[in-house]
């Protein structure tokens, strides 16, 4: 064994230096002064050889242990170097995204390191080894497996958006979730604070950019929806515009409105509110209606535009009761004035849909009924409020009869009224609900608050008792 011979040589060298041996060609000889016998010398020699063997074995074990430790350390160092290299590659190639902010849910996955074998792709469900990968949405992904929910193409952009647990390209997210203006069809811009700000109609939920309220975009004079670039509105002769859906049931002249006028008269008859006078009806343009309004002293007019008007005049006559007596007594007898109101006509704006025209006509006919029945001058909120109640009741009767059920008024003495019209188109029913919504949600003190007070009284006491209380007190019963 080579290692044993090297140890022995080292041992011999040590003995020579320490024992002062002398070497000759024939062999080794002890000094003459040693005083040691040959047996003793042999015994000592054997003991020294055993010690050398033990020492050699111990040294060999130490050397083998040291080599084993060096091999382990070298292996560990190699693993650490490999892991550091893999991390550097991953860090340089790893796809990142910015943190989530605003309304687009931007997201930037943090850089994390996991032991090899613990990363499973959430797209293909296979193990992700060293190389490129994504850590976002609480999962790991191969880059080619991280796909947009909308277009199903891989997301390789630095920024992306999320909705729920699904990723989107920024452009796909905007196309899917960013609201568009229903007027100009563009994406509604954000305000200086970075928030999406838009306007919406309270009934139709038509979303549009705030700028369209001031840029002259026309509205339908019936349903109030803004004109979009895709659907043109019809211009009427007096400057108003009408959408195509409202145009479908619009009434354009007086002769066309006569059947509707007769229907509303029957509606009043069913409520035991027959009018004693045949009231003329005229459909007019906006300018003519505004001119007639300027000359009419009675009533309150709903701004910004009046759609109907009841024209009336007070006729005063003087009479005296003849008494028996001298001629001088007869000349001194005072005259007694008698005043009565005569309804001359009802004016309604032309070009409006049938249900809106009918609700305006029902409102104005209630004005005529109050004047013909001799009701004293009422406050604006009471008179306009009860007229709105009748317009609302007529709309309810039309919508309920069109759906197959009969209308029952709020009065205890009223009769049923069924429209002879067939089932209405879906938009016309929606339009009728909108006109009801306009009456119910009116915020004006006269038309809005007056209607709500009158409707509450009619629902509680019935129409006839409410009208009797108005005649006696000039107010609604509570």
TrEMBL record:
UniProt domain LIM zinc-binding: residue ranges: 119-179
Cross-referenced PANTHER family, in alphabetical order? PROTEIN DA1, PROTEIN DA1-RELATED 2
GO molecular-function terms, A-Z: catalytic activity, acting on a protein; hydrolase activity; metal ion binding; ubiquitin binding
Q: Upper taxonomic classification of the species?
A: Eukaryota, Viridiplantae, Streptophyta, Embryophyta, Tracheophyta
State the Gene Ontology BP annotations.
Answer: regulation of DNA endoreduplication
Q: Which gene is transcribed and translated to give this protein?
A: LOC100783253
Q: Under what name is this protein listed?
A: LIM zinc-binding domain-containing protein
**Which keywords accompany this UniProt record?**
Coiled coil, LIM domain, Metal-binding, Repeat, Ubl conjugation, Zinc
For this protein, the record's InterPro entries field holds: DA1-like, DA1-like_dom, UIM_dom, Znf_LIM
Coiled-coil residue spans: 65-92
